[in-house]
Amino acid sequence: MISWLQPLILLPGVALLIISTSARYEQLQEEIHHLLMEAMPLSDMVLEHLDDRVHLYRNTLTALYLSVVLFALGSLLGVLTLPMGDAVSGTVALSFTGVGCVGLLFAAAQLVRESFLTTEVLQDHVRQLKDLRGG
């Protein structure tokens, strides 16, 4: 396969991650807005987790956007260095692709951390509901 093309093949998958993460971030914004408007009492743990989730989403989206930039740069520089030979263009494209993949791994780790925080909040809500029911 042509080395400058490889980073471009990853872009549709990254785009899907950006779309789904942006949607989840929007849901978090709506949740926080709703909690503010309702002035609902929340435990310190839930407030801390909401704050942590905001930062995790910001870090995730930043890493995903940087990955897109690195993949595009790798492909562009790979094409521009084609006259210098396949080895040079392949090395250039591969280096940017590798760093872009590190960004993807970081973003995935952030999303895993966020899912654990969300699970803890949901479990706390279930415990509160059980306490209200007397069970």
Notes on the protein architecture:
By secondary structure, the protein is mainly alpha-helical. It has one domain. Helix 1 runs parallel beside helix 3. The radius of gyration is 21 Å and the shape is rod-shaped.
Give the structure's gist in a few sentences.
The chain is an all-alpha fold and 135 residues long.
List strands and helices in order, with pairings.
Blueprint: H1 6-38, H2 44-80, H3 86-133
Helix pairs in contact: 1-2, 1-3, 2-3
Our count of helices gives 3
The percentage of residues in β strands lies in under 5%
Helix content: over 70%
Order of helices and strands: HHH
Inertia-based shape: rod-shaped
Question: What gyration radius follows from the Cα positions, in whole Å?
Answer: 21 Å
Work out the number of β strands.
0
Features:
135 residues, rod-shaped, 3 helices
